Amino acid sequence: MIRQDVNRIDAKRRAMLDYKKKQFATPTYKQQDYPYRLNFYDIPPTAEITLEQFEQWAIDRLKILAEIEACSFRNKTAAETAAHITPLLQKFLPLSANTSSASGAADQRLKNERQKDHYSHFILRLAFSATEDLRRRFVRAETMLFKFRFQQDDSKERRAFIESLNLDWEVVSDEEKRELAESLVNATPGLRRLDDESWYKVDWERVPELVERRSVYLRKGKAYVPGREQLSMIMAEFTARLDRAMELTSRALPRLDEDDRLTPILNHLSKNFGSAESVYSEGEGVVDGAPITASSVDHLSQHFPLCMRSLHMTLRKNNHLKHFGRLQYTLFLKGIGLSLEECIVFWRQSFKGFTDDEFNSRYKYNIRHAYGDVGGDVNRRGRGYPPYSCQKILSESGPGVGQTHGCPYRHFSVDNLIGLLQSTGVHDKDVLRGVKEDVEKTRYHIACNRVFEWAHKAEIKKVKEDGTWSQTDLDTIVHPNTYFKRSYLLKQLGKPSNTNN
Ligand code: SF4
């Protein structure tokens, strides 16, 4: 792994260093023991891991960060966020307390968990240090993750961890406390007696959040922070260190271009922040036992996300779709489990103005190609191309005149988008206002999830209450085929199975 020794050098020396020369100092192997559950990620990992671990660990962490960010975008409360990410953390990035380790096997599990946490953090640092926007989002999501874990930590272990950080917080002496008694009490809401609290003195820039909230007494450039605000101080410290580390990583990044094993993985990861495409595997959108045939597509389209609904509506209106729309829609239909034969029937019946010969010569080959039935790419023979993820649809070039592919949240004007939503039955003013806000902030898939949650409100409430679906079954949708499958299954609740609904 890449070392960042410059990070632990004092500020004056650091300013004089030539990072291009120093950032890849020969790594010295250092065994990490992980005595604490929490980690400030000051020391980069240097032991070897496999390329598979490198990628999979990063994907697992990315999934967590993307969900944390989505919760924040959707203004979920701290309690809602905790309820949402706890099972995801358990699944993708568990991190147990020392007290859970009572045997040799448990010790090893603890170490494995902490190693994965440590490495995945550093891998994503590399992936997200390229631009200021990515750095900012990464630091924000990581800080939220750290805060969540900090609050969940066993209090004894948490205290030991804080002591291990050697933070240069100066404890305010009793004498100074008495001298500033009135100011300290006035600046600490709810405090009755001076002796009920202890204070730390830190440079005021290190606790901007507390300064902004006017929760600290300021004097001669120092903030007097009450012990109860320890969480804020720790968070500020975590963020500040990570901000600095990300800066250094971004300067080191050009050298990494030389590594053609890691660069494609890192590029792929950075493209998927917010809509972690990699967690979708081919075939995942198929609903076992559902009647997916050419003749059922009209009926099933009520469960389609807006991108596919829009394509379907245009197809029915014009009896035709242009190439990219056909491709996007064909791959989606393949992803929901429509067989190649049924897909050909579907398109043949939909293209009403064409003779069989015209259809066969102009369109049939492309459908077969999408399914991998024909075509030159040996690797894809028999499988064809995977259905497009939101990330792919959102990032590829949008539709031109007469085209309908893409994502309506991203590629339609706001008026057209709202009109389309209304034509599909979304009339709730709050939802439409929320969608507009999401779109303005370029949070397209959040808008899509907002509509999904509204359209399935009763069903989601039910599966949550009766516990039949876990939180991981209800994570943020980042793939049109996940949208379909989830919608279909939710709307099937309480109906006899194998019905065409
Ligand atoms: Fe389709 Fe994804 Fe856009 Fe929703 S966010 S409409 S699923 S591309």
Helix and strand content put the structural class at: mainly alpha
What compounds are bound to the protein? iron/sulfur cluster
What proportion strand?
under 5%
Biggest sheet features: 4 strands, antiparallel
Q: Which runs of at least 5 residues are low in confidence (pLDDT < 50)? A: 1-24
The chain-level mean pLDDT equals 84
Radius of gyration: 27 Å
The count of helical stretches stands at 24
Which sequence of strands runs across the widest sheet?
A: 1-2-4-3
Helix content: 55-70%
Dominant shape = elongated
Order of helices and strands: HHHHHHHEHHEHEEHHHHHHHHHHHHHH
Q: How widely separated are the two ends?
A: 52 Å
Quaternary state reads single chain
Number of domains: 3
**Strands, count:** 4
Protein model, in words:
- Helix 3 (51-73) crosses helix 5, helix 16 (340-350) packs antiparallel against helix 17 and helix 21 (429-440) packs antiparallel against helix 22 (444-455).
- By secondary structure, the protein is mostly helical.
- Strand 3 and strand 4 form a beta hairpin.
- It folds into three domains: 51-164 and 238-274, Transcription Elongation Factor S-II, Chain A, CATH 1.20.930; 166-230; 281-492, no CATH class.
- The two termini are 52 Å apart.
- The protein has helices spanning 11-16, 19-22, 51-73, 78-92, 104-127, 132-152, 155-164, 174-179, 181-186, 208-212, 230-256, 262-271, 297-300, 306-318, 323-336, 340-350, 356-370, 390-395, 408-411, 414-423, 429-440, 444-455, 457-465, 480-492; strands spanning 170-171, 199-203, 217-219, 222-226.
- [4Fe-4S] cluster binds at residues 307, 390, 407, 448.
